[in-house]
Amino acid sequence: MLFRFASPWFFLLLAFIPVAVYFNGRRILRPVMGYSSLFAVKDMTSSFILRIRWLLPILKYLALCLVIAAMARPQWGIRQEKVMTEGVNIILAVDLSESMMALDFRLKGKTVNRLDAVRGVVRDFVAGRAGDRIGMVVFGSEAYTQLPLTRDYSTIVSILEKLEIGAAGKSTAIGDAIGISLKRIEDIKSKSNIIILLTDGRSNSGEMSPDTALEIAAQKKVKIYTIGVGSKGEVPFLIRDPLFGDRYVRQRVDIDEGILKKIAEKTGGLYFRAENTKGLSRIYDTIDNLEKTEVEVKIYDQYNELYAYFLIPALILIGLKIILSNTRFLSVP
Description:
Blueprint: E1 2-5, H1 16-29, H2 48-51, H3 55-71, E2 74-84, E3 88-95, E4 105-107, E5 110-112, H4 114-127, E6 133-139, E7 143-150, H5 153-161, H6 174-185, E8 192-199, H7 210-219, E9 223-229, E10 234-241, E11 245-252, H8 257-267, E12 271-274, H9 277-290, E13 296-305, H10 308-325
Parallel strand pairs: 3-6, 3-8, 8-9, 9-12
Antiparallel strand pairs: 1-2, 2-13, 4-5, 6-7, 10-11
Helix pairs in contact: 3-10, 4-5, 4-9, 6-7, 7-8
């Protein structure tokens, strides 16, 4: 909500009020002689009415100030911004297989699993987009739509926070993830469509092979950026054992970089390897810069006029001044 004066230059008239007060001051405040045929003039005292006669000019000048404020057109309203652009259709395909539980990332000085590291980076990526439609597909042994294409970025972030490792199964179905992502992109037509595929494993599940999926993506001219997330070699996992309690074990998780590079190359995207949070953040920053779109923004202002709230009190003060001048404060020349 905004408050403004549409014609503020009328406030320049306020400069004349002190001048008027100066020239009229002596006449207004000059001593008033009381006359009586019964008492000597020197023994007369001013009545209460005479002592408060200075209120009349105050009413007049206050009313004048309100009239000037009304002429400046006070307004109260709203400003709306309408984004006029097709934008980019972006599908975030996120791996939720059990290998994402590996504790090989650090965030704000704490060791976190791979999914927690991804959340913060993707959240910043989404916040930096404007006018783009963003959807989300998650995959493990299966792939499914977590969120269709939308410009409701707050909902995207909310859904992102609720993702759980293992919700889509233990394995990794990269081909199915691309296939579902392609279906979601077809929901809303756009000149530019991209998929950001993030995984930490090797495709070992699903109905569609990664090769078949990338061929379809290439035919549809959908660009795929692939991200292999996780450090190389053995990585620690937290095991919750009901008998021996929580303990850490080290396991090896292999990323099929060959297929990820192939998918990116065939579709016109790029492959990235992220072994830490800073690297992951730089990757999303790079994609963000590569896929920028020009956003045309139209601004609409809608204001309500408030001059009546100044003019009506001014008229009341003027009326009160006229009434008092012709009754209790009547001046006889």
